Structure formats: C-alpha cells, structure tokens
C-alpha cells in the first residue's frame, strides 16, 4: 500500500470492513473506525495548541492591550472556530439557535453525498469550505510564525540599571591567568530591587588562585523554581559571583511564560556577593542557599570560569534570547559543566527543575557526604542528609540585619565570610581518580 493510500484510509470517516452494512438508499454512512477518532482528536488538539502558541507570542510581544493583539485574536479565533464547527460539529448541534444565528439563521442538512443543504435551497459544499478555511488558517499561522522567527534580540534598549552593562574582560599578555574584568557590579542596595547606589567596577583576578565553586539557589516562588548563581572562590581574594539573568527593560518584570516567547534578552552579570546575593536575601526577601561543590579539580574550576568568559564574548558580539526551558540560569551552567566533566554529570530531569538542582548534586556525590569529618578528621561525624544541607546552607538567618555598606568602597569580605558560617568548604581534589573515588563514596553513603 502506498503512503498516500495509507493516510487516505486512516483519515477516512468510513471503514472498509465488508462485513458491515452497506449504505442504504437514504445515504446512511458506514460506521467510523476507532483510528479515525484518534487521528481527529490529535488534529483538533494540534490546531488548538497552534492557535494558543501564536496568540501568546503576539500578546507577549505587543501587550494584551495593543489593538493589533486584539485584531489578531479575533482573526485567529474566528478562523479556528469556523473551521472546527464546520468540520466536526454534529448536525443536530449545527441547527441549534446559536449556530443558526452565527450563520445568518440558515439551517444545514447533510445529504447522502456529504454536501450540506441550506434552507433557502442553496447548496453549500462542506468539503470545499472546510479546505478553504483550513488553508486560510494555515496561511495566517505560517505568516505569524514567520514574523515570530524574524524577531531578533537587541543590544540597545532602555535597560534597568542592574542589567545595563554586560561583563567584558582583557587577558594579560604575559600571564593568561590574569584576567581584568570590566563592568563588575557592586551596587549598594537599600530596599527591594529598585533603590540602590549604582557602581560598576573593574577587577583583576588570578585564575591560578581559584580554589572552588559554590552554587547559590535563590527561591521566590516555591520549591521548584529558583535562580541559580555560581560563586568562584580564590585563595587570597574575595569570591566573585557570576549570574546568567534576563535583561529587563525599565518597567518590565520577570515572566516564566514570557521567557518562552522572546520576551527577554540574556545577560551575564559579574558581581560582588555583597551586591548580587544581598539584594536577594535582604532587599527582596528571597530564600537563598549556598552549596559548596565538592570533588572538583582546579582545571575543572578554571574551565568553568573560561566558559563564562566565552559567554561574555558571545553576548558582547551578538545578543541572545533567554528561554525559560532551553537557555536559562540553570541549564546553561549544566551544559558548560558537562562539557568539562563529562559523564560525572549525568543527564537528569532536575536540570530543568532549577529548585531541585541541590538534590541532584547531592545524589551524584558532588556535595560532601560527611563535611564535618573532612575538616575535623579526628571526629566521627554523621553524614549530612539533604534536609541538614538545606538547614546549614540557608543564608537568610546569617545576614539578617546585615549592613552591606560597612566599608567606604564596598570591598569588604565580611558578607562573604558571614554567608559561609557553619558550611565546611571542601578542598580541591588532586587528581581525577581522587575526585571520582570520593564522589562514589558520597553516593554510596547516600544509598
């Protein structure tokens, strides 16, 4: 059987079973097959979802009060409704007062040939009209999809102050480990995320002094959704935080749904912890947790930092869209880390459920199972459960009432020291074998 014949039979409303009754002289149709109803159901679902997607794209781009959004809504909903009514509504419902009024009080009767007769004697070919409506709807949808695909991210907009700059850097010609970062954010926050003394600075760091990585999760809308930041620790310097965020324009606010429809550009923020973490714990009142990642080698930490530098290059060359599912603050970090660490970071659904990222790290052995024992070998410490990790790493109680303007230049490490109180900081692993062995031991303890 040819492919064309297969699909023709699948979409046919009549079965070819010879045991079934033949159509009578009155034009009665043979029974419809089960597969016919299944296929028609998925066609209806696809049509409805396609309309919803296009309408949401229009609403998020133009706003729900824009005239063009309302015109588009009327056209798309009208076409889809007419198509579904004409194609799928049973005859007994087509002759209800509402439908008759919708079609100028004309009643419809299906004849034996599949045509529909109007009460004024005119013959309306249902099949032809359905094809015209379907073609018109598909044309409108393709036009809308083409418009959406043509929308490009912009570098120049009226940005909110906290995302008005993108990090850039230069590398020392004689020592490639010496990196000078420009546009490092070091704001003094007062309340909320609107009142602050703005300060963008230049900072030089030595990648050969990198000593570890901390993952910070900030929760503001339940346990499933969190914003993820990464802080890099240095042997003889204060930590530096890097955060992939939406680049909001003035007056904009975050929308998870809007992130699916090219509503926000992506930005990379380099910041002092007393800025980017303080604003979440103290100014906004989000619940923030800091997890030191264990069993890493220094070259892995350096490679992760280099990955951020690559993102900075890319964003300064060409802006990119933030996407709630595919390119957000959590999974971009995972993509970078997996390139570096490979199979040590297996794929997991929690990569897309950002609030559960710490649990993922715990399960794969990247949070030290017995952190107190690692700092005090002479003691016999019980392994930390995930509940204890959340209890010990909760930052908010540690910095309640903290004055983040405790130094004239804002370069005090007091805040960074305070948020790590009670959290043993793991050393870097000397070799891959050591890192994998300890991670395996942590997983065994958890099991």
Automatic annotation (TrEMBL):
<feature type="transmembrane region" description="Helical">
    <location>
        <begin position="35"/>
        <end position="62"/>
    </location>
</feature>
<keyword id="KW-0812">Transmembrane</keyword>
<feature type="transmembrane region" description="Helical">
    <location>
        <begin position="68"/>
        <end position="89"/>
    </location>
</feature>
<dbReference type="InterPro" id="IPR025178">
    <property type="entry name" value="Lnb_N"/>
</dbReference>
<dbReference type="Pfam" id="PF13387">
    <property type="entry name" value="Lnb_N"/>
</dbReference>
<feature type="compositionally biased region" description="Polar residues">
    <location>
        <begin position="410"/>
        <end position="419"/>
    </location>
</feature>
<keyword id="KW-1133">Transmembrane helix</keyword>
<feature type="domain" description="Lnb N-terminal periplasmic">
    <location>
        <begin position="197"/>
        <end position="354"/>
    </location>
</feature>
<feature type="transmembrane region" description="Helical">
    <location>
        <begin position="132"/>
        <end position="150"/>
    </location>
</feature>
<feature type="region of interest" description="Disordered">
    <location>
        <begin position="398"/>
        <end position="447"/>
    </location>
</feature>
<protein>
    <submittedName>
        <fullName>DUF4105 domain-containing protein</fullName>
    </submittedName>
</protein>
<keyword id="KW-0472">Membrane</keyword>
């Amino acid at each position: 059987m040819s492919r064309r014949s297969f699909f023709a039979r699948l979409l046919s409303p009549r079965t070819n079973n010879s045991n079934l009754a033949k159509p009578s002289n009155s034009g009665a149709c043979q029974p419809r097959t089960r597969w016919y109803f299944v296929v028609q159901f998925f066609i209806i679902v696809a049509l409805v979802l396609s309309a919803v997607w296009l309408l949401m794209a229009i609403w998020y781009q133009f706003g729900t009060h824009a005239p063009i959004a309302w015109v588009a809504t009327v056209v798309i909903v009208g076409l889809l409704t007419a198509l579904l009514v004409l194609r799928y509504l049973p005859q007994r419902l087509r002759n209800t007062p509402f439908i008759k009024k919708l079609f100028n009080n004309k009643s419809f009767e299906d004849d034996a040939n599949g045509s529909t007769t109007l009460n004024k004697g005119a013959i309306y070919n249902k099949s032809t009209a359905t094809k015209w409506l379907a073609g018109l709807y598909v044309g409108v949808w393709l036009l809308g999809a083409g418009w959406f695909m043509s929308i490009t991210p912009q570098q120049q907009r009226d940005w909110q102050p906290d995302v008005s700059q993108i990090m850039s850097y230069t590398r020392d010609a004689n020592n490639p480990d010496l990196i000078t970062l420009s546009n490092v954010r070091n704001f003094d926050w007062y309340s909320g995320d609107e009142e602050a003394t703005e300060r963008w600075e230049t900072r030089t760091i030595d990648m050969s002094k990198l000593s570890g990585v901390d993952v910070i999760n900030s929760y503001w809308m339940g346990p499933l959704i969190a914003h993820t930041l990464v802080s890099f620790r240095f042997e003889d310097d204060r930590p530096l935080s890097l955060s992939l965020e939406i680049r909001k324009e003035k007056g904009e606010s975050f929308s998870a749904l809007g992130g699916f429809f090219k509503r926000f550009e992506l930005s990379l923020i380099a910041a002092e912890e007393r800025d980017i973490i303080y604003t979440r714990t103290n100014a906004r009142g989000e619940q923030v947790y800091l997890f030191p990642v264990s069993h890493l080698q220094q070259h892995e930490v350096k490679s992760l930092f280099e990955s951020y530098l690559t993102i900075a290059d890319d964003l300064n060359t060409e802006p990119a869209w933030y996407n709630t599912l595919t390119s957000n603050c959590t999974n971009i970090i995972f993509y970078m880390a997996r390139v570096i660490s490979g199979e040590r970071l297996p794929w997991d659904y929690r990569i897309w459920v950002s609030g559960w990222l710490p649990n993922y790290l715990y399960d794969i052995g990247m949070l030290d199972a017995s952190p107190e024992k690692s700092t005090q070998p002479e003691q016999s410490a019980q392994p930390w459960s995930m509940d204890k990790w959340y209890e010990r790493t909760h930052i908010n109680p540690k910095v309640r009432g903290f004055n983040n303007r405790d130094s004239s230049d804002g370069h005090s490490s007091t805040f960074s020291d305070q948020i790590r109180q009670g959290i043993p900081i793991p050393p870097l692993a000397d070799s891959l074998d050591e890192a994998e062995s300890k991670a395996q031991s942590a997983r065994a303890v958890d099991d």
